[in-house]
Design a protein that fits this description.
By secondary structure, this protein is α+β, with helices and mostly antiparallel strands. The two termini are 23 Å apart. It has one helix spanning 65-81, and strands spanning 7-9, 15-17, 38-41, 47-50, 58-62.
Length: 89
């Protein structure tokens, strides 16, 4: 799990981040939140992280939901947040 929140400022002044509840985003102005993935159970009790909302892969399966969430956050950080892309790298 990440110990800090990273906020990336785009060229037009827009902010991007992987959502967490460490502070109230409304303090920054208008908030528009979009889903980046779906962490869901499989038929056999494992977990996957489906990153198709941002053009990414399905990660997993993982034995624990927390493992799927950790992989989801890491993928979003490396392939979406830092690249500023809504399509596959």
């Amino acid at each position: 799990m990440r110990a800090s929140t990273e906020i990336v400022v785009g060229r037009q002044g827009e902010l991007r981040m992987i959502y967490d509840e460490s502070f109230d985003l409304r303090q920054l102005g208008h908030v528009h939140i979009e889903r980046g993935s779906h962490v869901e159970p499989t038929m056999n009790g494992q977990w996957t992280a489906d990153l198709s909302p941002v053009g990414g892969p399905v990660l997993g399966p993982f034995a624990l939901r927390s493992e799927a969430i950790e992989a989801e956050i890491e993928w979003l950080h490396c392939h979406w947040l830092l690249t500023g892309s809504d399509s596959p790298p």
